[in-house]
Structures are given as structure tokens and as C-alpha cells.
Amino acid sequence: MTSTSEPIDGLTLIDGLTSEALQAAMTEAIAAARSAAAPFGAVLLDLTDGSIVARAGNAVENGDPTAHAEMRVLRTMNRLSTPAAQYALASTAEPCPMCTAAAVFAGVGAIYYGTSIATLIALGWPQLDLPARELTSNVVPASYAPVVVGGVREAECDTLYTHRADAALAQQLARARDPRPPGHHALTPYLAVPDVHEAIAYYQAAFDARELLLVHAAENIVYHAEIVIPSIRDTVIALHEDLPGTARARPPQTIDGTTVTLTLWVNDVDAAFSRAITAGGCVDSPPENTYWGTRMARFRCPAGHGWTLAHQLLEVSSADQNLGAQAHLAAHPLTSLAGKSGSHMLVSGSS
Ligand SMILES: [Zn+2]
């Protein structure tokens, strides 16, 4: 069976389809639309039993301009083995000419939709002003044209577009689903430093960091800054100066040390380490191969933060890492934890 098999009479299909199944399909489409940046949703409905075989929302914000909801569900038809004409496309809005044409070429038996293109245009949504039925009336031979039925749950679908009729709102919705500002990963280190300008100059020299943002509270107080390090997948790091009396962290000097180490995964640990030290960093431990499979070096930046440069050479099992850690501890016992600050964690002495 292929999608070019003899089409089933669409009118028969609609008569045979329970309105309950179509209602369920449109509910799915409406749900998909509500979670999409551009609130367009579609489902593919099996007309023989009313089951929904695919559902999707508009996804053009991901960079594919053809990723309309209807296109996305039609693309799933390549995994269906039954005749295309037994499926219907149900969409919250009248399919655009691209999607209607795709539905015709896919060979679906019917197209159902809620909001009309005319309504979308009236609400300010840019559209190609060509109704789906007008397009399908040009199908030759006419028996291959899908049945087109509009106005399904129309009032409900219209509300999707009435309240979201401008692109700015649609963008806000997209942002609501992704809480990160542009360029940020899910976790952003926020470093307290004595002087943001000096810190940025160092990170530029050591890591090719780029300044993204500088927020001054007064001429000489940087409340907030952001840099990006392109070589570590555009990682953003935020910075601020010492702001005593606020909820911000204090710079390392104020506690004579730091309690967090930032790890940079780099291709060439030795070259990166040499550059970081030349730029003004302070050696904590020079490059070495570790028992857990990395080449690794540690240094302090002039602001006092601890950095690890690392490159994984091989994967080491957790059992072998445990053995390695035990051997390391035997060779390098910890000093008493009390009174030890601002220095190496592992120094020789009694435990
Ligand atoms: Zn479309």
C-alpha cells in the first residue's frame, strides 16, 4: 500500500467519523498550539478508528522556516504503511498554501481546521491570502483532492490568535518556555571580584573572553558584568565587585581563599596553562596526568578564583578511581582541616 493508492471518498469519511474523535483531535491541536511559540497546532487523525497518530506545534523558531505544525505531522507519514487517504490533517488554523499543497501531495483524505486564514489576516497575522479550499479545487484529477472542512471548534481556536496577535508576544511565549537569556547555558557561574575591569582584562588575555555587559551602579562600582568564553562553547560567566551588605558573595580575598573551583575543559592543557600564567595567573599545580584519566593543571586568576584546566585522556572506572584516590591519600596525607585556608587542599603533613 502506498500513498498513491486509490483515494477514499472524503464525504464518506466525514460521515463515518464520530465527531467525538474529531473533537479529541482538535483538543490535541489546541494543546500543541498553546505550547508553541507561534500558537499553531496540528494532528494527524486515522479516519478508520479516530485515533491520533501524530501531533505537533509550530517550530519555526528553531530555524526551519517550513516547520509549520501541519508540515511536521505530515512528515511523520513516511512511517505509515496504510493508504494516506485514510488520514486527516486537523489544524487549529486553516493550513497555509505550503501546508495545503503538502497535504495534497501526501494524499490525505481530509483537512479540518478551526480559525480561517481570513480571521488570521484580520487579527494581524501575516498570511498568504489563499484559502485551502481554493487551492484544493485546482487538484487534477479532482478525485484526489482532500475534503476541506473549516470552522471546527472555531471560537476556541480563534482565542489562540486573538490574544497573541503580535510577534513580540509570540517571542515572549518562546522565552517563557526557555528561561535563559540568549547565549546562556542553564548554569552560569557568578564570580565576585575586587575589580571587574581588571578581571575582564585578565580573562581576555588568558581565555580570549569577550565582554558582553557592564552594569555600573556608580562610576566606580560595577554591579554586574558578563563575559563569554567562545572556546568553551560560548560559556557565559557573570562578574560583580565587592558589595558588602548585599546578598552577593564576597571576593576570594575577603575570606582569604575560595570555596569553588571552575573547571575549563581545553584541548591543550599545557598551552592554556602557560597562557593563563603568563597573563598574570598564579600556579597552584602545573600540568600533570591524573589517576582519573585527565591531563590537568590548577591556577588562581588575579581575582583569586581557582581554575582547573583539564583534558580527558581516557575513561577510568569508578572502582579504579577509588583505588587511585586511596593510593594518592596514602602518599599525600591531608593536613588538619582547621586553620588551613587560602592554600592548597592537598599538602603533606599528618592527617
Ligand atoms: Zn503552513
TrEMBL record:
Residues 183-312 form the VOC domain. Residues 20-137 form the CMP/dCMP-type deaminase domain. It comes from the Bacteria. This is Uncharacterized protein.
